[in-house]
Design a protein that fits this description.
Blueprint lengths: L5 E2 L122 E7 L1 E5 L5 E13 L2 E4 L7 H11 L7 E3 L4 E4 L9 E6 L2 E15 H9 L8 H12 L6 E4 L2 E4 L15 E14 L2 E14 L4 H9 L12 H8 L2 H5 L1 E4 L6 E11 L4 E5 L5 E5 H9 L9 E6 L6 E5 L3 E3 L12 H11 L3 H15 L5 H5 L3 E2 L5 E7 L4 E3 L5 E3 L17 E2 L2 E7 L7 H20 L3 E2 L4 E5 L4 H10 L4 E7 L3 H15 L2 E6 H6 L3 H18 L24 E9 L9 E8 L7 E10 L13 H16 L5 E7 L6 H20 L6 E8 L6 E5 L2 E3 L5 E3 L10 E5 L11 E8 L5 H11 L14 H13 L31 E6 L13
Helix pairs in contact: 11-15, 12-13, 16-17
Pfam families: ArgoL2, PAZ, Piwi
GO molecular function: RNA binding
Length: about 1000
């Protein structure tokens, strides 16, 4: 409630403005961490100077009109704003207006002449493997090559307080406003469509029609101002991009225009969230674990266009998302306080306010008000005083002012008498407004169609969402075809106007190849054959094992319940079988061990005693829900005392209801334990992949996995970067390094580039050399979780950082060749294998590198694992740098075989083990103790503008290497 005729003084309530001025506390008391872990080696004897570090402070050339294929962050004229960002396969366009604050990368692009080019496909695709035919959820789009589309800049304004102001998307339905004007002016304007932002598109030239149009809707005057033509694209440009053998302008502008066109007819009946669509009138599911939670599930679909080897295609997939329910805030807050705020005098205690302010969702959600007869949308900052106490100052017409409470003001201004005036007001801020507003809780509603972050959902809610998202291949295939047919594209008036058609009679068919799996080698060269992505370890000895002389089993209670008689019986059976089973696989484990039962507060002392006793290993059994206990165990064991531990859940042990299942569970425990203690479970020989290259006999490979993990924005915690590298010739033993990184002043930016990639890889290279007494000649990096918009940043920073690290370590020796591969596990392309009259999952080892992939760049889809539930989602690989000069067959086979090297299981996994380990390290490192930040650079706040500063550099990012104890830092504690 923010009216021009009165002003609110600052709240006197201490619960308001939460989070401001608070600094994180870090415990620096740990004395056991090896401080030399990351000391830069002496490089004075090197006769070659390291390459100059990449200057990521180069100002983005935002006004360049030329954009080439290798410029993955395309430079465009200022008028294009965010809508001109490049498009990645299976990544929807972000068409949000500049007014929307985004979590964005802060590393600016470098000028074109300094950029490392993205490599091209080395051949026409792979040839090895059994050729099969698959369906994919891409549909061919047909467009005339002579078609041209014109883009016009427009402004949608509202007449407010005697002047024209921008009609903010959060407060006004811009799309509806423009549609009503276009309908009224149908005789004066040609066929046009609007992107709900700042652009209008037309096949024809508007010429003298570029003027201002006004309309009155619900007593509000709106204005559509059509400015000059800002861009013109042709379909022929896209086909040149597809057919050309040299870099040329990317057609992302055309794809953006066509995606906007495809949304026009469904905007009135569907909620459009980027490229996801949900029926407005559907019944949301709020039963089961969602009952009385404020959340509900909605079914919808995903739709996006891509440029592929065969031209433009449209991808359609099913979607299930969780949304906040459109309920009043009184009900919403009652749910989280677990009491009805309407009773007990309708008051809220200071403790309850503090508890609510600690909620992550309260900062994320937006609320709306309706009492002013116009929808107003706000973000919550905190709480004010009670509505009958919080003062407002009213400016009179003669310049005098008077004070009254919020409750009194509402009666005088809107004739609204509050039912619960003793409840506090919400301290809110409106986008673009400078003053805070204090609004009674009972007048606020949770804005509809806000997606709930999965981290805010309970385990049961996430399980229910997954259950409703996981569809059998045949069910997903049929639902996708049903969505495509219901969309009725070929009768869409907008598509007809462009003579555009989409082949929705049948999914696109593509060729796939099933690659040969590797042989898994155990001790004494015993071979285990892979069948349907799995193999049996039965009868085999682990290749290299350790002897465990002293170990302990510790039961950790959650404080809510004691282990029952049945629990103790199951644990006794587990304890008896563990040494016996591990011995069958070659692990000599002392059958005599001590058992303890402790509570959470005794964990640190227990691990201290474990370390002091000389034990090599601690097995912790968690009883009940113990996330805090798990984190404490890992932090104390790995950082403070340097001892290997393994945690098991009593509930999981209890589920192994027969000896066979329990034996399989212990088999998994044995593999993890052996790897963590320095053993080798099994190996895969990669020599067969390079049989055609005799010179490869002397090659020494090093495999690196890297990932950056981001948390929910409201948590204001750092991103965690993890780098994992192999340190054995068999590529089965890995070590890791990690760091945390965040912008200064805790701003809401995420950094995709790993700032400390050079010191981390340098240290990993040193360990590799010390372990093997030789230098790697070829380094293959698998980088997880990066969208196409950041490809060039990674080339200019991480690839360059790795080269610099090699220069520091190798000295005068020949430098290794590097191949840098991006892995994308979350995308919306699906494949279906026809099997007679049925649709099934494709086989493990299926690779697709034609038809729907990039026209020239080196990318492919690889389904390395067997499907467990629902429709398999294969991984998408995009090669940025290929100094090793891998052929398609070589890299695809190598990647597939590396998916069989995860020490934690006897099955192929979704991506190479190094990348999976990096993801695990990033997860664990979130709970480690960190050192205080050392930073000297600061920049002004740009939180409200939502714009990235032109001179923002990596130096504006705070980062700290995360240390673990010297006893375990070079062990596989993360498996």
């Amino acid at each position: 409630m923010s009216a021009p005729s009165y002003r609110y003084p600052p709240s006197t309530n201490t619960c308001g403005n939460r989070g401001h001025g608070r600094k994180p506390h870090y415990d620096t008391r740990n004395k056991d961490i090896d401080p030399s872990s990351y000391i830069t080696p002496n490089t004075h004897h090197y006769n070659r100077r390291p390459l100059s570090p990449v200057s990521v402070g180069d100002v983005c050339n935002r006004v360049s009109k030329v954009s080439f294929e290798n410029n993955n962050h395309t430079h465009n004229s200022r008028i294009r704003n965010r809508s001109a960002e490049p498009h990645h396969p299976d990544k929807p366009y972000d068409n949000r207006p500049p007014s929307v604050n985004a979590i964005r990368s802060v590393v600016p692009d470098r000028s074109q002449h300094e950029q490392i080019p993205i490599c091209f496909r080395p051949d026409s695709g792979g040839t090895k493997g059994q050729v099969i035919t698959l369906y994919t959820n891409h549909f061919k789009c047909n467009l005339s090559e002579t078609l041209a589309i014109n883009q016009y800049t427009v402004h949608v304004n509202v007449f407010k307080r005697g002047k024209w102001c921008n009609a903010n998307k959060r407060q006004h339905n811009r799309f509806e406003i423009v549609q009503k004007i276009l309908q009224r002016e149908a005789d004066n304007l040609p066929f046009v469509w609007f992107d709900d932002g700042n652009f209008l598109y037309s096949r024809e030239l508007l010429l003298d029609r570029a003027r201002t149009y006004e309309i009155t809707i619900k007593n509000q005057i709106y204005q559509l101002a059509i400015k000059d033509m800002s861009d013109r694209v042709t379909v022929d440009d896209m086909w040149q991009y597809v057919r050309s053998k040299t870099p040329c302008k990317r057609p992302q502008d055309l794809i953006r225009m066509l995606e906007t066109l495809l949304k026009q007819t469904i905007r009135s009946r569907m909620v459009c969230i980027r490229n996801q669509f949900f029926e407005k009138n559907q019944m949301l599911y709020d039963g089961g674990p969602f009952q009385n939670s404020g959340f509900a599930l909605a079914q919808g679909f995903y739709q996006a266009m891509f440029v592929t080897q065969i031209g433009p295609t449209l991808t359609i997939d099913t979607k299930c998302s969780c949304f906040y329910r459109n309920i009043d805030m009184l009900h919403f807050l009652s749910i989280y306080l677990e009491r009805d705020l309407k009773i007990n005098g309708a008051m809220m205690s200071a403790d309850e306010k503090r508890a609510l302010l600690r909620m992550k969702c309260l900062e994320i959600i937006t609320v709306e008000t309706r009492h002013t007869f116009n929808k107003m949308v706000y973000n919550i900052r905190g709480f004010g005083d009670n509505a009958d106490q919080h003062p407002v100052t009213i400016d009179g017409p003669d310049g005098d002012s008077r004070k009254m409470s919020v409750a009194e003001y509402l009666v005088e201004k809107y004739d609204i008498k509050l039912k619960y005036p003793r409840l506090p007001t919400l301290e809110c801020v409106n986008k673009g407004a400078q003053n805070l507003s204090y609004i009674p809780i009972e007048l606020c509603f949770v804005e509809e169609w806000q997606i709930v972050d999965r981290s805010l959902m309970t385990t049961e809610q996430n399980a229910e969402k997954s259950k409703r998202s996981i569809l059998l291949p045949e069910v997903r295939f049929n639902k996708t075809m049903m969505i495509a047919n219901e969309r009725n594209f070929n009768n869409d008036p907008y598509l007809k106007h462009l003579s555009m058609t989409i082949d929705t009679n049948e999914m696109l068919q593509v060729k796939g190849r099933i690659l040969e799996p590797p042989n898994i080698v155990y001790r004494n060269n015993r071979i285990a054959s892979v069948t349907i992505g799995k193999w049996l370890m039965k009868g085999s000895l682990l290749q290299q094992t350790t002897r465990v002389h002293k170990w302990e089993m510790i039961l950790v209670k959650d404080g809510k319940r004691e282990p029952g008689h049945m629990d103790m019986q199951k644990l006794e059976e587990f304890c008896h079988m563990l040494p016996e089973t591990t011995r069958r696989y070659g692990i000599q484990m002392n059958p005599h061990f001590e058992t303890k039962i402790i509570s959470h507060h005794q964990i640190r002392q227990c691990i201290y005693d474990l370390h002091a006793s000389g034990a090599e290993f601690g097995l912790f059994i968690l009883i009940g829900d113990c996330p805090d206990s798990y984190q404490t165990i890992k932090r104390c064991a790995l950082q403070e005392f340097g001892i290997i531990t393994l945690c098991c859940d009593l509930g999981s042990i209890r589920k192994q209801n027969n000896p066979g299942k329990l034996n399989a569970y212990i088999e998994n425990v044995a593999q993890k334990m052996n790897a963590r203690l320095g053993g080798i479970n099994s190996t895969v020989s990669f020599k067969k992949i390079f049989d055609d290259q005799p010179k490869s006999d002397g090659d020494v490979f090093m495999f690196i996995g890297a990932d950056v993990s981001h948390v929910v924005v409201s948590e204001r915690k750092p991103s965690i970067a993890a780098v994992v590298a192999s340190v054995s010739p068999t590529s089965t033993q890995y070590i890791c390094r990690s760091s945390e990184q965040r912008p200064v002043k805790d701003k809401k930016y995420s950094l995709e580039v790993i700032k400390d990639f050079q010191p981390m890889t340098r240290d990993l290279l040193h360990v590799f050399v010390q372990t093997n007494k030789q230098y790697p000649t070829k380094i293959v990096v698998y980088r997880d979780g990066v969208d196409e918009g950041h490809f060039q940043k990674l080339l200019d920073n991480e690839v360059q950082a790795l080269k610099n690290a090699c220069l520091e370590v190798y000295g005068n020796r020949p430098l290794p060749k590097i191949t840098f591969v991006i892995i994308k596990k979350s995308h919306n392309t699906r494949f279906f294998a026809p099997n007679g009259q049925r649709i099934t999952n494709m086989a493990a080892g299926t690779v697709i590198d034609t038809t729907i992939v990039h026209p020239r760049q080196f990318d492919f889809y690889l389904n390395s694992h067997a499907g467990a539930l629902g429709t398999n989602v294969c991984s998408y690989y995009h090669v940025l740098y290929n100094e090793i000069e891998f052929t398609s067959d070589e890299l695809q086979q190598l990647t597939f075989w590396l998916c069989h090297t995860d020490v934690r299981c006897t099955k192929a996994v979704k991506c190479p083990a190094a990348a999976r380990y990096a993801h695990t390290v990033a997860y664990h490192a979130r709970y480690f103790e960190k050192e205080p930040y050392q930073t000297t650079s600061q920049y002004p706040s740009n939180r409200d503008t939502g714009q990235v500063e032109d001179d923002l550099t990596l130096e504006d990012i705070k980062s700290n290497l995360i240390m673990v104890n010297k006893n375990v830092k070079n062990m596989m504690w993360f498996t």
